[in-house]
Specification:
The complex is a heterodimer. Chain A contains six helices and 16 strands. By secondary structure, chain A is an alpha/beta fold. Chain A has two domains: 110 residues, Beta Barrel (Elongation Factor Tu (Ef-tu), domain 3); 123 residues, Nucleotide-binding domain of ferredoxin-NADP reductase (FNR) module (Rossmann fold). Chain B has a single domain, classed as Alpha-Beta Barrel (TIM Barrel), CATH 3.20.20. In chain B, a hairpin with a 2-residue loop joins strand 1 and strand 2. Classes of the chains: A alpha/beta, B alpha/beta. Chains A and B meet through strand 14 of A and strand 5, strand 6 and helix 9 of B.
């Protein structure tokens, strides 16, 4: 992990208010493991004070030529570009959307142990199939794990749900790595109409004999629903958690989630112990708000 | 120029950078010698080690570690933080590993540093504070304690002590008796007159004062009409609070004889210098550590450059606010 000032090579607008931000950062790109994240800061903005946590969507080779397209202009296979897929949801991401090639941002990366934990990889190897389940921008956490699992010869399938068809960004990037992609939209504009957990449940029920590992990233309710679905025999579930973060370094304790077991009491830091947790270890019930 | 004379206009006028002038940035508080006046604030710097690969910890004057209680604390349910304009709200709930585990697992690293180690201590009762200090007394390599009587985020926590001068006196006196080290008291800004609590602490034996802790605030999600923080109210920190914290440091400097350590929204050397000129003998960098880990080291460098430029030592600057002639320092507001 390092804290670096890095240069924007491209900030490509996609559908539904999504962007794919490419940053030239060879050292951080090389160090990135699947499921890790970055903390991004826009220098000189005291109104947007804190860094923003973003899943590392992809790492790619490519030198910064200032051409506005760093993807294929370099030589060699070492990754030099970190890509962040994000959706404009608030003030921080709105300012990110205004970034242009050659702009500089400060990036702390790569952070968290992500998917790169022996027990997680063992679970993937033991499964007949790994099912990636993405809700909206949660897709951003899953591409690198899908790539690395495909390289290990593990069979995979993608279940991707979002509000509308315009929010289903990045599905095509999974094409080479998964055997099938199932899409769902809440407004029915593309794929299955409704939540993606419905076709997921049907799939699990059609294959009671198979062992599955679910790797899920998305809104809390979707994570919780997947954790429930994974309670059947032969099924395990990993969730990549999101939370507001102060530092990404493990010191502010702002990003803690309620998890059973050891660590800092029963609260563990998404940035340090996570962001990937076993679903069965997470305490999903929201705690009641204490009275003053 | 001696440390005690006020700087004259001639001596602080911008001068040619001179190689032979080496400003002294060290500061002595309650007998503890700090290499420079910049410390990192409790709760924003973990136990130091988390920043070891990002900055040179030996460039810091000191590290104030995360608040420690006699027993481990789980902390508050999430959500715990929320960003606001030029600031942030937090209600972590003093989650910590407990005094014994701190001594075993965290102190050895801190002891290896040149930076001074100050341990922030809190409790739910006077007995709790005393018990925590008694455990910490058994460890070597701690330079001072900072008594947290001002955390706004725990129900019966430090805040009760920090908002009643009699209780302040009681807990400071008991802690001072138990302590084998200098004792600083971290004051709450959530009071009508902070000097009352500063005097109460001084009277009860405090060796120094840290001010201020966070301001109680809140934020609401209007779509769902729910609080942004599970604790409902939370502590506001960051650049947004700096002017108010500065005013309180200024008032307190004129109200007590013991040293004052200034904290509240410091993100640059100029911020730190404002606190020092207002009367702080040292400063703490807090929230800025979260988004710019190099801040504290940059503040040290900036203060050094300022002192070089003005040909002054740090001690010349402490409390050196210039007022129009014949105007007495006003601490009323």
């Amino acid at each position: 992990m390092s804290d670096e000032t890095v240069v924007v090579t491209e900030n490509r607008p996609l559908t539904g208010g999504h962007f794919l931000l490419s940053l030239h950062s060879p050292r951080q790109a090389l160090a990135t493991r699947p499921g890790q994240f970055a903390m991004l800061r826009l220098p000189g903005r005291s109104d947007v004070l804190l860094r923003r946590p973003m899943s590392i969507y992809d790492v790619k080779p490519g030198a910064f030529a200032g051409s506005g397209n760093g993807d294929r202009s370099g030589s060699g296979d070492s990754p030099t570009i970190i890509q962040l897929l994000y959706k404009v949801v608030g003030r921080g991401t709105q300012l990110m959307a205004e970034l242009k090639p050659r702009d500089e941002v400060e990036m702390l990366a790569p952070l968290g142990h992500g998917f790169f934990k022996e027990e997680y990889l063992d679970a993937a190897r033991q499964a007949d199939e790994v099912l990636h389940v993405a809700g909206g921008i949660g897709i951003a956490a899953l591409l690198l794990p899908a790539k690395s699992l495909a390289q290990a010869g593990i069979r995979q399938r993608l279940f991707f749900g979002a509000r509308t068809g315009l929010d289903l960004v990045g599905a095509e990037d999974f094409g080479p790595w998964v055997t099938d992609t199932v899409l769902a939209t809440e407004d029915g504009s593309r794929g299955h109409a409704g939540y993606v957990t419905s076709p997921l449940e049907e799939y699990l029920e059609r294959h009671p004999e198979k062992r599955f590992l679910l790797l899920v990233c998305g809104p809390w309710a979707m994570l919780q629903a997947c954790a429930e679905l994974a309670r059947r025999p032969g099924c395990r579930c990993l969730v990549s958690m999101e939370n507001r973060m102060g530092c990404g370094l493990g010191v502010c304790l702002g990003c803690c989630v309620h998890v059973e077991g050891q660590g800092h009491g029963s609260y563990e830091r998404v940035c340090t112990e996570g962001p990937v947790f076993w679903a069965e270890h997470v305490i999903w019930e929201r705690e009641s708000i204490p009275k003053i | 120029m001696s440390a005690n004379t006020k700087p004259s206009p001639a001596s602080t006028a911008p001068a040619e950078p001179s190689a032979e002038f080496t400003p002294r940035l060290d500061s002595t508080i309650a007998g503890i010698h700090f290499n420079n006046p910049v410390l990192t604030a409790s709760g924003t710097f973990g136990y130091g080690q988390e920043f070891a690969h990002l900055i040179d910890l030996n460039q810091l004057g000191g590290i104030v570690v995360k608040g420690i209680s006699a027993d481990p604390m789980p902390g508050n349910p999430p959500p715990r933080i929320y960003e606001t304009e030029a600031g942030m709200l937090n209600a972590i709930g003093l989650q910590n590993v407990g005094a014994r585990k701190f001594l075993e697992e965290k102190l050895p690293f801190l002891r290896s540093l040149q930076a001074r180690c100050v341990v922030n201590v809190f409790g739910y009762s006077t007995e709790d504070y005393v018990r925590c200090i008694e455990i910490l007394n058994q460890g070597e390599g701690i330079d001072a304690y900072e008594l947290n009587i001002s955390c706004p985020n725990t129900r019966c926590g430090g805040m009760v002590y920090g908002s009643d001068p009699k209780l302040t006196e009681e807990v400071v006196a008991a802690s001072k008796r138990a302590s084998r080290r200098p004792l600083f008291v971290k004051l709450s800004p959530n009071v009508t007159d902070i000097t009352e609590f500063a005097r109460a602490s001084e009277g009860a034996g405090a060796d120094g004062l840290t001010l201020v802790n966070t301001f109680v605030g809140m934020a609401i999600d209007v779509e769902t009409r729910t609080p942004r923080i599970s604790n409902i109210t939370a502590g506001l920190s960051g650049p947004a609070i700096k002017p108010v914290a500065l005013r309180m440091v200024y008032q307190t400097y004129h109200a007590v004889k013991i040293p004052v350590i200034g904290i509240g929204g410091i993100a640059t050397a100029d911020d730190a210098l404002e606190f020092i000129i207002a009367g702080a003998r040292a400063v703490q960098v807090g929230t800025a550590n979260f988004y710019a880990p190099e801040t504290a080291v940059q503040v040290v460098e900036g203060i050094r450059a300022y002192c070089q430029r003005h040909r002054v030592h740090l001690s010349d600057l402490v409390g050196s606010l210039r007022l129009p002639q014949n105007q007495p320092p006003s601490t009323e507001y």
